[in-house]
Structures are given as C-alpha cells and as structure tokens.
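Incident review: delayed structure delivery

Summary: a single-chain prediction request sat in the queue longer than the usual turnaround. Root cause was a stuck worker, restarted by the on-call engineer. No data loss occurred. The affected request and its eventual output are reproduced below so the record is complete for anyone auditing the incident later.

Affected input:
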Amino acid sequence: MEEKKKGFFSRLVEGLNKTRENIVSGMDSIFSGFSAIDEDFYEELEETLIMGDLGIQTTMSVLEDLRKKVKEQHIKEPAECKQLLIDSIREQMDLGENAYEFENRKSVVLVIGVNGVGKTTSVGKLAGQLKDEGKKVILAAADTFRAAAIEQLTEWANRAGVEIIAQQEGSDPAAVIYDAVAAAKSRQADVLICDTAGRLHNKKNLMEELRKINRIIDKEYPDAYRETLVVLDGTTGQNAMAQAKQFMEVADITGIILTKLDGTAKGGIAVAIQSELGIPVKYVGVGEKIDDLQKFNSGDFVNALFDVNKENMQ
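Output delivered after worker restart:
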C-alpha cells in the first residue's frame, strides 16, 4: 500500500510538471533575484501566484499570511520566505480531516459535472477502487441525456467488475435512480454511485432533475449516507472555479474530484477551489489508469507542486 502511495506521489510530481514550471520557476527567480523584502518583492509573488491560477482571493490570503509571518519572525532575506510561503499555501488548503465517511457506511454517491470533464471515467475509477477494497458497488447510469454516457459507464462497470443499472437514452433519470436504489437495497450493496447529468446551461432543468433524484433517495433509502461530488477539469483553471460555484447553487456539494491535473499548467486551481469555496478536493486525477484517481492529500499536493522531497514532509 505504501508502495502504491509512493508511486502515486511520483506521478503527482510528474503530473504537476507544467504547473510547477508555471509557478515555481517564477518563484525561485523572485526568491533569488531580490535582495530585500519590499513591495516589489510581494508584487512579483502576487503576479506569479495569480498566473499559476491560485486566484486573486487565495493569493491575497496567502500573501497576507506571509507578510504577517515575515514581520513576526523578523525575516530579512527573501530566500527565507520560500518555506513560509509553502506552509501558508498548505494551510489554505487544509480544511481539516477530509472525510471519506461514505466508504464505511451504506451510502449513495451522486456524481455531477458537465460533459467532457471526465465525470463518467471518474465514476468508473472510483467504483473499481472501492471494489478492490472489498466493497459491493452498484452503478446507476442516470446521465440519460447522452447515449455515449450510458455506453461508457457500462464499459467501466464491466472493467471494474461491478453491476450497473441502466435504461434507454432519454429515459427519466429519476426512474433509473429508483431502480438502482431498489437494487442496492435488495443486493445489500455498500455503495451506490450515480452518474448524473450536468447541463449547467440549462440550470433550471438540472436543478429540477437533481431535486427529483434526491426526493427518491430520501424516500426510498432514508438511512443511506449521502455524498455529492462534483467533477471539475483542472485544465480549465478559473473556469472550473466558476462551474463549482454554479453547481453549489443546484446541489449540496460535499466534495470535488479534480481531473486532468497531468495536462495543465493550472494545477494551482486546486488551492483556489479549496481555499475560496470551503469544499474539500477529495480526489485528484493525473492520468488514464484506474489508480490514477487518488484521494487528495494537501501536504502531498503542495510538496509535489514545489517538488519538496516526500521524505522531508511530515
């Protein structure tokens, strides 16, 4: 298990290459290029962090914290600020214990997200991992708007070796959920994962659809633990943040799955989302394989972002 975790850490380091080049090389030249901690120094840092997609609000919080620590600790050398900055970013992301409570209870997990963010793939990977941990998992293909979504999920269900409840394209998503809940109860499933639609351009319909789905689960499976995860594409940077805010209006989001971090220079968005929205990033994806979706660890993430050796981190 430790081996697997190490493997993922090195993939995370690799996956964050573009983000690191975007943020860290800029940082290093600031830390080594300035001889004094002055306003110009802070301005350069601010620009580099914003360019790395940490977002304005998060950048301001991080720099405010840095200024305070520099003052309190009477730091004069810019180079000495680096670790303080890393610590500050880590604190911004730490929302306490990331709860994976749904893994230990009979639960229903709703997964939402717009097309193309890796939603169905994330559902499949999550199902595969839970199955490997000995859990009985059932998938519900409630994104009935696209035939491709049902086919793709069926393929993932076969690959993961889990059961899938599906109907025809265009059928009522709530009816699929009704059948899936009945199956989960009668077959004593540990986790029911529902792939739902995410048509944000049609927010009113989406809201109504999610409301119906939630009503059915509340009525038919009241004792199930509930988790609602929104899948966001890391490559879209601030767009992902805007999507998260919109989804928060239509659903009670409990966590975020951030995909495609390996293909982007905008990995700093993970910091921004967690810091600004107060919703934990629970999983990150850095590749295509089933184990390339992993539980998020803010310490590992910041270390990978700044290429801090894992051994140094405790």
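Verification: Confidence is low (pLDDT under 50) at residues 310-314.
Action items: add queue-age alerting; document worker restart procedure.
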